[in-house]
Amino acid sequence: MKKITAFEIIDHGAEHSQYFQGCGTSFTEFDLAFTGAGIDAKEAYNDALEQVHMADLDGNKLPKRPRGINAKNRVPAEALADEYNEVYYYVSIRVKTV
To answer: How do the domains of the chain map onto residue ranges?
Structure first.
C-alpha cells in the first residue's frame, strides 16, 4: 500500500458530461488524479475518495469532510428535472505518493 504525502482537492462544479475536460497531473507535483461525479459536491467527493481507496492507497490522510465540499453545491434543479440529464457535479483529488 502506497502512502499519500500530499493531496489537492479540486471542485470543478456542475458540467455537462460531454464537455467536462477531466483532470490530470501534467505539470504538477502530483502522481495520480481521481475524479468523482454525482448530483452534488459531497457525492462527487465520496466517489473520488472511493477510487483512491480502490487504487490501494492509504487514504487515511484525506479529510472525511473537506471544507467547501457539501451537499449545498449541486446540479441545478432544472437540469435534474430533465429526463435526459447529462449534467453532473465533479470533484477531483490529486495525490502525491511515496
So the answer is: 2-97
What residues pair up with 94 in beta bridges, in sequence order? 8, 33
Q: What is the distance between the alpha carbons of residues 11 and 69, in angstroms, rounded to a whole number?
A: 8
* AA identity, residue 89: Y
Q: Which helix (H) or strand (E) holds 78?
A: helix 77-81
Give the CA radius of gyration of the chain: 14
35: cell is 475524479
Q: What is residue 83's predicted lDDT score, i.e. its pLDDT?
A: 86
Q: Could you give the CA distance from residue 34 to residue 90 in angstroms, rounded to a whole number?
A: 10
pLDDT given for residue 31 in this prediction: 96
pTM over 0.85: yes
